[in-house]
Amino acid sequence: MTCIDIIRYAGSIDEAIFEADAVFIVTEWNEIKGLDVVKMVEKMKEPIIFDGRNCLSEEKIRACSSIEYYPIGKPPIII
């Protein structure tokens, strides 16, 4: 097994998610809660979201055509 740790800081949420393999949500900021999830996953390389704060509603997730969504304490939604 090989592991590498690279940290890159982004100036915006759009910059951070562009071509991302996965997104980990670890804050409940209003900017995160108000995201347009459909547009968000369109910018990602792989539409995989781990939501550590359950910030995104099931309605927003189910509006996506393809997504792997893993909320803490709830069943995943895989479309």
Can you walk through the features of this model?
- By secondary structure, the protein is an alpha/beta fold.
- Helices cover 27% and strands 16% of the residues.
- It has four helices and four strands.
- It has a four-stranded mixed beta sheet.
- It is globular and about 35 Å long.
- 14% of the residues are buried.
- The mean pLDDT is 91.
Describe the secondary structure blueprint for this structure:
Layout: H1 13-17, E1 23-25, H2 30-33, H3 37-43, E2 48-51, H4 58-62, E3 68-71, E4 77-78
Parallel strand pairs: 1-2, 2-3
Antiparallel strand pairs: 3-4
Major pleated sheet: 4 strands, mixed
Task: Figure out the total of helices.
Answer: 4
Distance linking N and C termini: 30 Å
Please estimate the helix content.
Answer: 25-40%
Task: Pick out its properties.
79 residues, alpha/beta, 4-stranded mixed sheet, single chain, 4 strands
Can you give me a brief rundown of this structure?
The protein has 79 residues and is of the alpha/beta class. It has four helices and four strands.
